[in-house]
Design brief:
CATH architecture: Orthogonal Bundle
Number of helices: 4
Order of helices and strands: EHHEHH
Structural class: mainly alpha
Number of domains: 1
Helix content: 40-55%
Mean pLDDT: 85
Low-confidence stretches: none
Largest sheet: 2 strands, antiparallel
Radius of gyration: 16 Å
CATH topology: Multidrug-efflux Transporter Regulator, Chain: A, Domain 2
């Protein structure tokens, strides 16, 4: 019998200027350090400090890691696929913002 319960995702509220250690990021997102390092290698995340045992990340990257985790879990994407999907999602957001800036209010 397949388990149909939805997993619970928890998130901590942090200041955008705050940084997190690799361990804090992993605990907050429920992922392994090796997986985060794969995301760094693929260019998905850019650490504030690169030295591995003391690697630090901007707290504003938490939603990106959560999205990457969902892409891996829900769609079975590997790190390269996650990088491509996030890049395309970012581009769609940017194009939407540009379109909104050029359209009169209420025209959509």
């Amino acid at each position: 019998m397949k388990d149909t319960t939805d997993p619970t995702i928890t998130c901590e509220i942090v200041e955008h200027s705050e940084t997190l250690t690799l361990g804090q990021l992993c605990r907050s997102c429920g992922v392994h350090a090796e997986w985060v390092i794969l995301l760094v290698d693929e260019g998905v995340l850019e650490p504030v400090t690169m030295r591995e045992p003391r690697m630090r990340f901007a707290a504003m990257h938490l939603p990106r890691v959560h999205t990457a985790r969902r892409l891996a879990q829900d769609l079975g994407l590997n790190a390269s696929g996650i990088a491509l999907a996030l890049e395309l999602m970012d581009e769609i957001r940017q194009l939407g913002a540009r379109l909104d800036a050029h359209e009169p209010p209420g025209s959509r």
